[in-house]
Amino acid sequence: MPLTCGLVGLPNAGKSTLFRAITAAHAEIAPYPFTTIAPNVGVVRIADPRLEAIAAITHPQRIVPATLELVDIAGLVRNAHKGEGLGNQFLARIREVDALVHVVRCFAGDVAHVEGGVDPRRDIGIVETELLLADLAAVERARAQVAPRARTGDREARQQEAGLAQLEAHLAGGRPARSWVPAGGSEAGAADERRRLLTARPVLYLANLDEHEPAGGPCLETVAAYAATSGAPALGLCAKLEMELAELPEEEAAPFLAALGIAERGLPRLVRACEALLGLRTFFSIVSGEVRAWPVPAGTRAPAAAGRIHSDMERGFIRAEVIGVRDLVACGSIAAARERGLVRLEGRDYEIQDGDVITFRFAT
Fold first, then answer.
1. How many alpha carbons lie under 13 Å from residue 307 in its C-beta half-sphere?
2. Alpha-carbon 73 to chain mean position
3. Cβ(207)–Cβ(13) under 8 Å?
4. Which residues contact 124 (CB under 8 A, 6 or more apart)?
5. Mind listing the pLDDT tens digit for each residue in 256-286?
6. What average pLDDT score do residues 52-77 get?
7. DSSP of 248-292, one letter per residue?
8. What is the spatial distance between Cα 49 and Cα 91, in angstroms, rounded to a whole number?
9. What's the pTM?
10. Mean pLDDT over each residue of the chain, to the nearest integer
């Protein structure tokens, strides 16, 4: 399954416009809140010149790029954690994604702002407060459930409650779960709960810029400065402009971008930012007339990577035959690479590196 990034933010921040532009889907767009009730899901192909380079020397019947799934989640409002604006439904959808793209409104125009005017720092604060309060309530419930067993002296329950108490205090201090550093060996007691929390997911702050200032400005600087305080990345693009560009042929879009002083469209920049946010490494497979790119999280070991292709390959994993994509392209073929001793054998503990070309050997 593709890894997923959820688009979150206040209503009318431009999430659906951005979604439509970058996925070529047709999310409903209107100048009033809660246009998006059921989440829109789009799959974006990730362009990778290495895939084309491999295909140029292997001549496959099919070339299958890696993909990234984008989920357009309806806007959150104040008291969403209490169910305002269907908040409970929307918060639950966030729990299903791997990372968050927090879309922050930086444009004026005729579209009404639910808070009355553009203020990126305030808007970020509203959404993050709702996520924190939802997480805090979840941890409080989990702690209440384990407390009776902890009072009986159950060692595992006491450890779990201690971890949840630390996590609860961290969230109550206005800090996201992703920044929690457990103390006193308490991580094991709260690790499962933390993974389920909304603020445990990595976040990218995306400033949705005004079409009259598509290269950025003070609003983007404010968003970037806020992101920097938590070590998160920030990116600026104009969703309305991206939607217009999506309807133009590439030969017309390029000079239009140049006239605006923009070096590159927003889609490839956003995809790269999401890849970095998720900590992805891409390996390639060459089998059955197909060259395919497979994104996996950093630290993925060879058997788990084989399982991305097929579960039988993970269960019956024997070894991985690995060569770097640069070495393969330089040699011109797998056979030539073998002759030069560039194809190496790796076992179960091997961690996948970005750009590996791998053939998995497994028992059925």
1. 11
2. 13
3. no
4. 102, 104, 205, 223, 226
5. 778 877 778 887 888 889 888 988 899 999 9
6. 86
7. S-HHHHHHHHHHHT-SS-HHHHHHHHHHHHHTEEEEEEEETTEEE
8. 37
9. 0.81
10. 85
